[in-house]
Amino acid sequence: MNISTKLFTGLIIISLFLISILVTSYVFDDKINSKSMLLNKVYTNNTLKFLDVRRDVIQIQQWYTDISLTKGLDGLNTGFREAEKYYSSSQVLLNELIKSNNNGKFLNKIQNIKEQINKYYDLGKTMAQKYLEKDNAKGNLLMKELDSFAEKLTMDIDKLVIKEKKHTNLLLNQIADLTKLKKNINIVIIGIGIFIIVLLSVFTIHDIKKPLKTVVFALKNISEGENDLTKTISYNSKNEMGQLSNYFNKFLNKLELTINTIKNSFGKSQDVGDNLLSYSEKVSATLIEINNNVKSVNESFIHLDDNINNLVKAIDNNYVSIKNLTEKVETQASAVTESSSSITQMIKSIQSVAQIAQDKKVSTKNLLDITKIGGKKLEETDIIIKNISETSEEILAMINIINGIAIKTNLLAMNAAIEAAHAGQAGKGFAVVADEIRKLAVSTANNTKNISETLKNNFENIQLVSGLSNESKAAFNNITKEVHDVTRDLEEVSDHMLELSTGSNEILKAISNLYDITESIRTNSSQMKQAIGESNEAVHNIQNISIDTLDSITKIAKNVSEMKTEAITIAKLGQENTENINLLNFEVKKFKTNHSSMSAKNELINYDDQLLTVPLFVTWNDSLNINIDIVDNQHKKLIDYINKLHANMKMGRAFKVMSKIIEGLVDYTVTHFTSEEKLMLDNKYPNYKDHKSQHVKFVEQMTEFKGKFFKKEVGLTPEVLDFLQDWLVNHIKGSDKLFGSYLKKNI
Question: Which domains does the chain have, with CATH numbers?
Fold first, then answer.
């Protein structure tokens, strides 16, 4: 039988035993639950209700007995009401007991107690009534009877309670027996299951152990021998260990073929390596020579480029000079043309001015006559203004008189109003008239004031006009004098204009000759400018070609230099390749195959080395630096713990290994937080409490996870690693960065 079949059979047996345990537990639990429900629903409930009925009987007796003492006094007459309340309560409880039970004898007993309570209640009520009627003798007899009745009722109820308690204890014992029986049956089933599992395990281990020893011995011979690939595992079986041995032998055969192929290819690899080294050395030497030639050509082109630049500068300077000369000639030609036109225009203007001067001489004589007439008119206007000024003064005097009258009228109106007020009803009409007079006086005073101010303004304006009139008269006198002078000057201007007209004609002839000479110079300078421009363009084209050529040669020199470096690198790589081929050849020859016999130590893969193949889960970078060496180093160690957890999870490491790493992470987290908090306290960090609360919460979460992991209630999942990464990275970039900034400012 195969090992997997045995394991599968064992799993089925374990499953059957588990199902048996579940079925047994279900059957017994069902019985226990039914009895527990009966216990809680019937017997416990009945017992409590009987006890409540017993309480009601005692309370009825107590309240009716109290009436014998209080005799129904005010404020102490609640006995009948309270007794009736407890009587009603007992009836409700007994009715509930009757409804919830179907035992005939038990129901008869409850019904009997109910009837006795009715009689008991009526007896107590009669007793209380006798006391209220002051029939104490009858009341005392009934009280003794009531006490006996109460004692009998409570005893009957106690018997029922005792009976219910017996039923309760019986059910409890049955539940305990069922629970014990369930436990014993489960123990027997588990014991049988464990025995069968152990027996099956012994047979399975026996089937595995023997062939496993054979495989281990064979592998040990291969690994600790001389790398002998010709040895195989001799174990013939149809189970999994036999298959393992067969597949391992096939692997050794393939490995042997691979090693033989590598050995056969070493000769070719060495030849290729040697040729590569030889060719790379030749290429390197050729490139060095090319590089030297390119450098020489580059230096020549640099010298040529300097000469071309100097030539371009010289031609540019000549071009600028010719251009300036041409512009000056153009300017001179334009100036001559403009001068000729200006002089022609000036001659016409001189003739026109001479004619105008003649005409203006006549006009100035007419203007002289007009100014004399204007002077006389201004004298007459001045006289009129003086008369108006005198009249305005007289009007102001009259207005002052009117203003005085208005003030007096206002005073008289006020006195009249006062007298009218003294006269009472008879003076009402007079008061109205006085008020109207007062308003008229006030209006007159206001108007005279406005007129006075207006006249004052007019008087001031008249004075101003009078002064201006005097100034105008003086100005007219000056104008008359100036007109005389202008007339005399115009006569002189007319004479000089005639002389200027004659001289201008001669200047016009000279400028005409100058214009002809300038035109000839302008034509020659334009031809020179065009020739220099063409030469300048050709030289600039040569300069651009030189620049492009120099740039290309520079790039060629750079590329050749890079090729030279790469060729040297290739030569070094060729040398290293040859050395590696020889080294590989030396190592491969250590393996013993059917074609060779060599020995070497077999290299075993170190399991920890496999962790190097797993990418880092959290990578340290500058964004995580808070520039506090001790804290940064501790952060790096925490990240290292998280990366170890991730790598070991990916590699499927055992629970023991993972537990050790998790415990180390939690312990070091506490150590780091303690160190960081001490640093905060030493430097009086203001956000210490908030920062510490974050530490406490994280440690609680990690401690809880560690506890559950050790109990195997939870496993290490990608979500847990994501939580660790997010918390640590965000904490460093947030809270720890703030602390780092604070410490940097305050140290």
Answer: 3-203 (1.20.1330), 243-581 (no CATH), 607-746 (1.20.120.50)
What the block records as the tokens of 621 is 């970078």
Question: Is 592 in a helix, a strand, or coil?
Answer: strand
Q: How far apart are CA 580 and CA 399, in angstroms?
A: 136
Report whether 308 contacts 546 (CB < 8 A): yes
Across the range 46-68, mean pLDDT stands at: 85
For residues 207 and 644, what is the distance between their CA atoms, to the nearest angstrom? 37
C-alpha 606: how far from chain center? 46
Q: d(Cα 126, Cα 610) in Å, to the nearest integer?
A: 102
Residues 403 and 452: beta-carbon distance below 8 Å: yes
Q: What is the pLDDT of residues 581-612, one digit of tens each?
A: 766 766 666 566 654 433 333 322 233 445 55
Residue 669 pLDDT exceeds 80: yes
Q: What's the rounded Cα separation, in Å, for the pair 161 and 165?
A: 6
How far CA 332 is from CA of 319, 345, 518, 522, 546, in Å, comes to 20, 19, 7, 9, 41
Tell me the pLDDT tens digit for each residue of 321-378.
Answer: 667 766 766 776 677 677 667 777 777 777 777 777 677 767 777 776 777 777 777 7
Q: What crossing angle do the helices spanning 718-731 and 688-710 adopt, rounded to 10°?
A: 160
CA dist 679 and 244 (Å) reads 59
Give the integer Cα–Cα distance in Å for 385 and 458.
11
Beta bridge partners of 592: 228
How far apart CA 161 and CA 55 sit, in angstroms, is: 13
Phi, psi of 228 (to 5 degrees): -80, 105
Query: Do the beta carbons of residue 478 and residue 378 sit within 8 Å?
Result: no
Locate 59 and state its tokens. 């309370």
| Nearest alpha carbon to residue 435 among 419, 413, 418, 405 | 413
Residue 592 has φ and ψ, to the nearest 5°, of: -95, 120
What CA dihedral angle connects 145, 151, 155 and 158, to 10 degrees? 130
Verdict on whether the full-model pTM lies above 0.85: no
In angstroms, the CA 133 to CA 72 distance is: 10
Q: Which helix (H) or strand (E) holds 342?
A: helix 240-423
Q: What does the block give as tokens for 350?
A: 């001189």
